[in-house]
Design goal:
By secondary structure, the chain is mainly α. The protein is 51% helix and 0% strand. It has two domains: 1-142 and 229-246, no CATH class; 147-227, no CATH class.
Length: 303
């Protein structure tokens, strides 16, 4: 497969399909493809608008995963700058959270200072700050950063966070602390739960107390199993995204028929809409999705 064919496939792969042949070809032609992959990031940095407006476009996501697989450090400052832009953050939202954190950690060559700057910058989009936090935990999992250093940063970050109800960044902070064993920040996270700042559907008291009881060594042993890993398998990482996940066939469920139902009795009610009743509390479109995906509600179950 020629380079032009590879790049064309990356740009618009079929929905629900991973471009396996094109990725395999790119992996075998590293030196030839590298300038083109970096060029995609440079183009995204210069003008994120086409990537924001065209949700079918995927070349930037594939390029990031391949560059992470290659441990291409030249991509690291480009990605940090893209993440610091509002439109850049929107273009990367599909990969936000743990995947983008793994990509960041893979490109960083062990740097944690710039990750901490990004995670601590209130001007940066919340989801991108959360991805930087996940990158720090991935560095802990990879032995590039000590757990104590990461927890010191998280403990110092918590007092600076906004106190808005269910603020998205609190979700990432809660997950990262939980996965590192939240012993040092238990009082602060409990207070956030009591104030309805931290979503109890994602992190609750029982979870925290269980992780503390299991201990720090157990938490460190489980980081890889929880998804904190450097990018070594491009297909494994990308197929976790909805864009590349194969569509599952679901058997049709026949409608329920009540054997005691008399259709004639219901004729007089035909055409009258049923009153809608909300199940559970109202969820803002920019709040974290209650399904626990780490994405905003408007970009997940609220589509």
């Amino acid at each position: 497969m020629e380079i032009d064919q590879i790049l064309e496939t990356f740009e618009y792969p079929p929905e629900g399909e991973f471009p396996r042949a094109a990725v395999a070809a790119a992996l075998t032609r590293r030196e030839e493809i590298l300038p083109h992959l970096l060029g995609i990031l440079e183009k995204l940095l210069a003008d994120p608008t086409p990537y924001v407006e065209d949700e079918e476009r995927a070349d930037h996501l594939i390029a990031l995963c391949l560059l992470a697989r290659f441990r291409e450090t030249r991509a690291y400052p480009l990605l940090l700058r893209i993440m610091s832009l509002d439109e850049g953050a929107e273009a990367l939202e599909a990969a936000g959270g743990r995947l983008l954190g793994n990509i960041l950690a893979s490109l960083s060559a062990g740097d944690s200072e710039e990750l901490m700057k990004l995670a601590g910058d209130p001007a940066v989009d919340s989801s991108m700050r959360g991805s930087a936090l996940h990158a720090l935990v991935t560095q802990v999992a990879a032995g590039r950063l000590s757990r104590d250093e990461a927890m010191r940063f998280l403990a110092g970050l918590i007092p600076t966070l906004p106190r808005d109800e269910f603020e998205l960044l609190w979700l990432d902070v809660g997950f990262c602390c939980l996965d590192l064993c939240p012993v040092e920040v238990y009082p602060e996270l409990k207070a956030a739960l009591d104030e309805d700042i931290l979503d109890p559907f994602a992190v609750d008291i029982e979870d925290m107390e269980e992780r503390i009881e299991l201990g720090i060594p157990y938490a460190l042993e489980r980081l890889n199993a929880r998804g904190y890993r450097l990018v070594d398998d491009v297909e494994r990482e990308l197929t976790e995204l909805e864009r590349f996940a194969p569509e599952e066939e679901v058997d049709a469920v026949p409608p329920y028929e009540d054997p005691f139902d008399d259709d004639e009795d219901d004729d007089e009610f035909e055409g009258i809409p049923e009153t809608y009743e909300r199940q559970g509390p109202k969820i803002g479109r920019n709040q974290p999705c209650p399904c626990g995906s780490g994405r905003k509600y408007k970009k997940c179950c609220g589509k």
